[in-house]
Design goal:
909 residues, alpha+beta, Immunoglobulin-like, Jelly Rolls, 5 domains, ten-stranded mixed β-sheet, seven-stranded antiparallel β-sheet, 16 helices
Length: 909
C-alpha cells in the first residue's frame, strides 16, 4: 500500500508539473515600458507584459491586473488601489490605467495574470512596482532652487551665439564655477522608505553618506530649459543610516552654460549651476519628514576648475575636501547656499533611461610621440571619457586629449575644427589617484597624455598605471541582433552599431564631438534602423517633448531641438528634418501601438502641417537641405522636401482617423493627394519614366513613399535598377535622406541582389570603403571624411533585419501584432540569423542554405501571428517540424505559411 501511495504521489506531481509547464506564463511585466520605474506621471501610466507558452498558436483571451499600496498587501491579495477583474481582451501592450487618482511620491505594487486561447489561467506574474513622481509645484514642499552664486536674467545669453563671440563683446562671460552643496540631517526613527527627487542644472552628481546615488552620467537629460527641466527620482532607503546623514551634490554646466574657452559650437548661458531637491522620508510608524533644498544648505567651490560640454574639463585634486559629503564634516568655512534666479522651465520627470557608462575599453597599444607625451590607441571610436590612474607629486599636471584621428607624427588630430577639447588633471600626490571627467565627453579612439614618465628615468614626472576609455550611451536595452555568413556585412553591422550607440544620449546626437546637437534628420531617417538595435520608445517620447518645446509661434519645428542655437535658412527650416515632428508620433504608434502620444502631439503636428502649407508653392516645397552629403549632389532639393511633405501629411491623415477626427483625416488625405499630383507634374517625365535627374534618390524616394502612379511603377523601378547597374556601375550615390529609400526600394521590390552587389564591395565610397580605410564607427560622409562617428547613413540595418534576416511586420499591422517573416538568401550568403525584441516579445529568425535545401528556424511570440514566406518553387517539398506541409499559398518563387506563436523549423527541398 505504501509503495502504491508513493507511486500515485509521483504521478500526481508529474501531472502538476506538466500542467504548469503547459500553461501560458507572464515572463516580463512593464510599467511605462520600463521595469519598476520611478518618477511616473499617472496621466501617462500604462502596463504591458510578455508571455510564453510551450504550445503553438497561443493568444491571450483575458487578463487581470491588480495594484496594491504595499507589497505585503499585494501578496495577501488585498488589492486596495485597483483591480481590473477579468477583462476579456487580447490586449497585452499599452493597457492604460483607469483606476482612482494616485498620490504623488508613492510606491505602488502590481501584478498581472492572463488566460490563454483555451481560457486557462496563468500564474500571477512576479510582484512589480512603480513610484509616482511629483505632480504639482505644491508637492515640492517649498523646495527652492539654490546654488553657490547667482547669475541674474540680465546675464543670460539665450539663444546661444553660433561659435564664438568677438573679443570685447559684452556678452562674453567666464566659465561658471562648479560648486559643491551639502546638507546634514537626522533620522530619529526607523525608515520605511526614502525617496529623493532632484534636478541639477546643467548636470549633477549626488551622494548620500559619501556613496553615489545611482550611476547616471550627465543627468538630467538635455532639454529646452526655458520650457522643460527634468528631474530624477531615486529610492535611497538602503543608503540612509540611523541618526546623522549627509547629502552631497556637485554641479556642472552641460548645455545650461557654455563659455567660449576652448572649442565651442555655441556660446551662451541660461544661468549658473543650480539645484533643487526634495527628500521624502517615510517611517515605519507612518509619519513622514521632508528635507528640501534651501538656504540652510552649505556651498563651496569644487575641485572642478573648468567644465564645458564642448571644451572639456579640468580638475585640481589638491582642492578636494575629504568627507565633504558625509555627516560630521567641518563645513564652517563653507558659505550658505544662495537662492538663485528661478529657471523658466517646468519641472517634469525624466521618462527616458539615463545615460550610463556601459563599456570599458582598454588600450591596444601605446606609443611615445614626443618628450613625455604618450598616445594610447583603444582600437575603437566611441563616445566616451578617459579614466586615468596615476602616481606622482602634488601639483603635477597631466594634459589629456582625446581624438578620433592621428597626425602623421603620431600625435592626436582633432579634426572638423573641434580643437581644443582637452582635460587637465592636477595631482594631489597621495599614492595612486584615479580620475575621470564628470561633465564632458568626446568622440575618442586615441588618448594623448602629456607630462608623464615614458622611459622610467623621469623620476620627477607622474606615472600612468592605468588608462581606460569609458563609453557613455543611453542605457536603454538592446533590441536586436544580426549576423550572417558574409564577414563584410557583419563588420558593417558592428561599425554602424558603434555609431548608433555613441549618439544615443539623452537625445540623439549627430556626432559626439563637433555638434552634440539633436539634428532632427538623424532621428527622422534612422528611427527604424535604430529601433531594430535599441528600444527607443522612451527616448522618442522625450524627443517629441523637445520638439514641442522648440516649436516657433508660426508653427515651424526647427531642424534642431532643443534649439540652443538659432540657425538660419535651411539649417533652421528643412522639411526633411522638421517633419520629424509628425513622423515620430506615427512611428510610436506603428512600432509600439501608442495612440496617447498622437493625442498629445496632435496640436503640434497640425500647426507644423499648416506651416508647411504656408511655405508651399503650388503644393511643392522647393527649399531645404536636400539629400545631404550625397555623391554628386544631383537630386533637386524639391524632390526630397516635397516627398517628405507628402509622407508626413499622409501619416497625419491616418493619425487623425485613429483618434476620431474624420473631418481632419479627409482634409489631410485630400491635401496629400494634391501634393502627390503636384510632385508628379513637377518632377516626373512620363516618356522617359524618370523622376527629376534620375538619381538614385530621385527615383527611389517616390517608389518607397508611394508617390509613383500605379501604371508607371514597374517602369520606374526598372529604370532605377538599370541606372544603378549601367550608369552608376553599382556604386552608391544617395545621401542621408535618400539612402534609406534606395535600400527599401530594392529589397522591398524583389531586387535584393542589386543591393547585395552595391553593399558587398570596398573599392568605391560606401560602407565597405569606410571599413577598408580604417573606420571603426560609421563616418559622416561616404568618402570617410569629416566626423568619424555619425549614425546618419546607417539605414543598411533595415535591410539586414527586414530583408536578410526577414523580420518585419505586415502592412497595417501595429506593434508587430502580425509579423511578416521573409528572409532573403541573396548573393553568396549561406546563413543568417537575427532577433528583434518586439512589444510582444522576442522574434527570432535564422536560416541556412545548403545545396537545394533551405532550413528556416523561427520563433513567434505569444499573442501574435506571422505570415512566413519561404523561397520555394511549385514542386518544392515543405516540412514544418518534420511533418509535410500541404496547406499553403504559392507566390512567384515563394511559399506562404500562416503560423501562430511558437518555435518552428521549416525546410524547403
Amino acid at each position: 500500500m505504501k509503495g502504491r501511495t508513493i507511486t500515485l504521489l509521483v504521478v500526481f506531481l508529474l501531472c502538476v508539473a506538466f500542467t504548469v509547464k503547459a500553461q501560458i506564463r507572464v515572463v516580463a511585466a512593464l510599467c511605462d515600458n520600463r521595469a519598476n520605474p520611478v518618477g511616473i506621471n499617472p496621466r501617462d501610466l500604462f502596463f504591458s507584459w510578455e508571455m510564453q507558452s510551450p504550445k503553438e498558436s497561443v493568444r491571450q483571451s483575458a487578463y487581470q491586473l491588480v495594484i496594491s499600496s504595499s507589497k505585503a498587501k499585494l501578496t495577501a491579495g488585498q488589492f486596495d488601489v485597483f483591480n481590473s477583474d477579468v477583462v476579456k481582451s487580447d490586449q497585452s501592450i499599452q493597457v492604460h490605467y483607469s483606476g482612482k487618482a494616485l498620490q504623488s511620491a508613492q510606491t505602488y505594487c502590481w501584478k498581472v495574470r492572463v488566460w490563454d486561447t483555451d481560457k486557462k489561467p496563468s500564474a500571477w506574474s512576479g510582484p512589480q512596482q512603480f513610484t509616482t513622481g511629483i505632480f504639482t509645484p505644491a508637492d515640492w514642499k517649498n523646495a527652492r532652487w539654490i546654488g553657490y552664486e547667482d547669475l541674474p536674467d540680465s546675464g543670460r545669453v539665450v539663444p546661444f551665439f553660433h561659435l564664438q563671440l568677438k573679443p570685447g563683446d559684452s556678452r562674453i562671460f567666464k566659465n561658471a564655477r562648479s560648486p559643491l552643496l551639502r546638507k546634514e540631517f537626522t533620522t530619529a526613527k526607523k525608515v520605511a522608505k526614502a525617496l529623493l527627487f532632484i534636478s541639477g542644472l546643467g548636470h549633477y552628481e549626488a551622494s548620500i553618506n559619501g556613496s553615489r546615488i545611482g550611476d547616471a552620467f550627465l543627468s538630467p537629460g538635455w532639454t529646452s530649459y526655458d520650457k522643460t527641466i527634468l528631474y530624477n527620482t531615486y529610492d535611497i532607503t538602503g543608503q540612509l543610516r540611523p541618526g546623522s546623514n549627509a547629502i552631497g551634490v556637485v554641479l556642472g554646466n552641460g548645455f545650461y552654460s557654455i563659455s567660449q574657452e576652448r572649442y565651442v559650437k555655441g556660446t551662451g548661458t541660461f544661468g549658473n549651476p543650480k539645484l533643487i531637491a526634495l527628500l521624502k522620508i517615510t517611517y515605519t510608524d507612518g509619519s513622514t519628514d521632508h528635507l528640501i533644498s534651501d538656504q540652510s544648505w552649505k556651498a563651496s567651490p569644487s575641485p572642478i576648475t573648468f567644465n564645458t560640454i564642448y571644451g572639456g574639463e579640468d580638475y585640481d585634486a589638491r582642492l578636494e575636501q575629504k568627507g565633504w559629503n558625509t555627516a560630521g564634516f567641518a563645513d564652517q568655512t563653507w558659505k550658505n547656499a544662495v537662492l538663485v534666479t528661478l529657471p523658466k522651465g517646468k519641472l517634469l520627470p525624466e521618462i527616458d533611461y539615463p545615460v550610463r557608462f556601459l563599456d570599458s575599453l582598454t588600450a591596444r597599444n601605446m606609443k611615445v610621440v614626443g618628450p613625455n607625451i604618450v598616445v594610447y590607441d583603444f582600437g575603437q571610436n566611441c563616445s566616451g571619457v578617459p579614466r586615468i590612474t596615476v602616481k606622482g607629486k602634488a601639483g603635477q599636471i597631466l594634459k589629456i586629449t582625446p581624438a578620433e584621428l592621428l597626425h602623421a607624427d603620431g600625435t592626436v588630430h582633432q579634426a572638423d575644427g573641434v580643437t581644443p577639447h582637452s582635460y587637465a588633471y592636477t595631482l594631489k600626490g597621495d599614492g595612486e589617484e584615479t580620475w575621470q571627467p564628470r561633465f564632458s565627453y568626446f568622440a575618442v579612439r586615441y588618448v594623448q597624455v602629456e607630462g608623464v614618465r615614458v622611459k622610467g628615468e623621469e623620476a620627477d614626472l607622474s606615472e600612468v598605471t592605468e588608462l581606460k576609455v569609458l563609453h557613455n550611451r543611453n542605457a536603454t536595452s538592446a533590441n536586436g541582433t544580426f549576423a550572417c555568413s558574409n564577414e563584410l556585412f557583419n563588420r558593417i553591422y558592428t561599425m554602424t552599431d558603434w555609431a548608433i550607440k555613441s549618439n544615443l544620449q539623452s537625445y540623439i546626437t549627430d556626432n559626439p564631438q563637433r555638434e552634440k546637437l539633436s539634428w532632427q534628420g538623424e532621428q527622422n531617417f534612422m528611427r527604424t534602423a535604430i529601433n531594430y538595435t535599441y528600444n527607443v520608445y522612451n527616448l522618442y517620447r522625450s524627443l517629441i517633448q523637445n520638439m514641442a518645446d522648440a516649436q516657433h509661434e508660426n508653427g515651424l519645428v526647427p531642424d534642431i531641438a532643443p534649439e540652443y542655437i538659432q540657425f538660419e535658412g535651411p539649417f533652421v527650416d528643412s522639411p526633411e528634418w522638421g517633419t520629424t515632428a509628425i513622423l515620430d508620433s506615427w512611428f510610436l504608434y506603428q512600432f509600439y501601438g501608442d495612440t496617447s502620444v498622437v493625442r498629445k502631439t496632435y496640436r503640434m503636428m497640425t500647426r507644423y502641417a499648416d506651416f508647411l502649407q504656408s511655405r508651399a508653392t503650388n503644393n511643392l516645397l522647393l527649399y531645404g537641405l536636400g539629400d545631404w552629403l550625397d555623391i554628386g549632389k544631383v537630386t533637386p532639393v524639391g524632390v526630397t522636401a516635397t516627398a517628405y511633405y507628402y509622407h508626413s501629411i499622409s501619416a497625419l491623415s491616418a493619425m487623425a482617423a485613429l483618434i476620431g477626427k474624420p473631418d481632419d483625416a479627409a482634409r489631410y488625405r485630400n491635401r496629400a493627394e494634391t501634393i502627390k499630383t503636384a510632385f508628379n507634374t513637377k518632377f516626373f517625365n512620363p516618356e522617359k519614366k524618370l523622376y527629376a535627374t534620375g538619381s538614385q534618390t530621385a527615383m527611389a524616394i517616390p517608389i518607397s513613399m508611394g508617390l509613383v502612379e500605379e501604371k508607371y511603377q514597374k517602369d520606374v523601378l526598372h529604370n532605377l535598377v538599370t541606372n544603378i547597374q549601367a550608369i552608376d556601375a553599382n556604386r552608391l550615390t544617395a545621401g542621408d535622406v535618400g539612402n534609406r529609400y534606395l535600400i527599401k526600394a530594392l529589397y522591398e521590390n524583389n531586387h535584393p541582389e542589386t543591393l547585395f552587389t552595391m553593399t558587398n564591395r570596398d573599392d568605391v565610397p560606401g560602407y565597405g570603403f569606410l571599413l577598408k580605410h580604417g573606420a571603426t564607427a560609421l563616418v559622416e560622409t561616404w568618402d570617410g571624411k569629416s566626423s568619424q562617428n555619425q549614425l546618419a547613413m546607417g539605414h543598411i540595418l533595415e535591410w539586414f533585419y527586414e530583408g536578410i534576416a526577414g523580420i518585419a511586420q505586415k502592412e497595417n499591422s501595429v506593434a508587430f501584432k502580425h509579423l511578416k517573416l521573409r528572409p532573403q538568401p541573396v548573393g553568396d550568403l549561406t546563413w543568417a540569423r537575427g532577433s528583434f525584441h518586439s512589444p510582444y516579445g522576442w522574434i527570432k529568425s535564422g536560416w541556412t542554405k545548403a545545396g537545394n535545401r533551405f532550413t528556416y528556424q523561427v520563433e513567434i511570440p505569444v499573442n501574435t501571428v506571422a505570415t512566413v514566406y519561404l523561397p520555394a518553387k511549385a514542386r518544392s517539398k515543405i516540412t514544418k517540424n518534420g511533418k509535410i506541409v500541404r496547406d499553403y499559398k504559392m507566390e512567384t518563387d515563394a511559399v506562404l505559411l500562416e503560423l501562430g506563436s511558437g518555435k518552428y523549423e521549416l525546410n524547403v527541398e
